[in-house]
Amino acid sequence: MMMNRRSYLTAMAAGAAASLISTRGMANPAPMRARNVVLVHGLFADGSCWSEVIQRLQAVGLNATAVQNPLTTLPDAVAAAQRVLARQDGPTVLVGHSFAGMIVTEAGMHPNVSALVYVAARAPDAGEDYTALAKTFPTPPASAGIVFDGDEGRLSEAAFLRDFAGDLPEAKAKVLYAVQEPFQKALLTGKTTQAAWRSKPSFYAVSTEDRTINPDLERFMAKRMGAKTIEVKASHLSLISHPDEITRLILEAAGQPV
Fold it and tell me: 121: which strand partners?
């Protein structure tokens, strides 16, 4: 169902109240200085989608690592991120795009994680049914473009170019489409058991032209967690079309000069 204005405002107020009683409340504390950044990709992509951001982080001396999300089940994906986090030496910013927000929310409890960054990403609460939450907002167009071959899902080329990577040059978007990693249906049924954003500094980049996750849903989740939030006039792939803005947000989360 679609959420009317009154219901939306009520939900926003409830979300704000919930964060007030969280372990850190609405105030987003200043993050500790970190030189490590771990980046996790979501559906329809692989670790190379972070290339534009990685080269900018490396240029200022940060250690950046992209997790190759197996896209099988949520526990598998969380375990892959935790293995990378365990290899980091000192405070680490954990960054997730799209579905990887689920992974950031769960794996972000790792002791090496000093701050969280969500890029047009899911940001569930502990035990929350994200699909049910998403249904309280208008369904984004990309959802209709998901096709399955048995239990293996991917985005159709038309939907990928129009609804996923809509602000990228077509030639570049077609290359990204060609290397998209398929996901397993089981991945979509997972629920987080804890919410790291309730105890760690959090940052959120809303994509205002997003056709994969409803931008108002992104705003709702960012508001609920009390995140430092920026809005980027971008498609779902802001990490590729607007890497400077995303990199600046990550640097802020790392306590580094911006």
Answer: none
Q: What is the pairing mode between strands 146-149 and 152-155?
A: antiparallel
Residue 123 is encoded by which pair of tokens? 């940001």
Q: Name the residue with tokens 């991945």.
A: 187
On whether the CB atoms of residues 118 and 108 are closer than 8 A, the answer is no
User: CA of 211: how far to CAs of 113, 143, 164, 208, 234, in Å?
Assistant: 30, 9, 6, 9, 10
CB 129 within 8 A of CB 138: no
The tens digit of pLDDT for each residue in 32-81 reads 999 999 999 999 999 999 999 999 999 999 999 999 999 999 999 999 99
Euclidean distance between CA atoms 206 and 158, whole angstroms: 23
Distance separating alpha carbons of residues 143 and 123, to the nearest angstrom: 18
Sheet holding 113-119, edge to edge: 63-67, 36-40, 92-97, 113-119, 202-207, 228-232
179: which 2 tokens? 């290397």
Nearest to 192 by CA among 131, 151, 250: 131
pLDDT, residue 31, reads: 84
Q: How far apart are CA 182 and CA 154, in angstroms?
A: 5
Instruction: For residue 249, report the phi and psi dihedrals to the nearest 5 degrees.
Output: -65, -40
Sign of CA dihedral 49, 55, 60, 66: positive
Predicted model pTM: 0.89
In the chain, how long is the greatest CA-to-CA distance?
A: 48
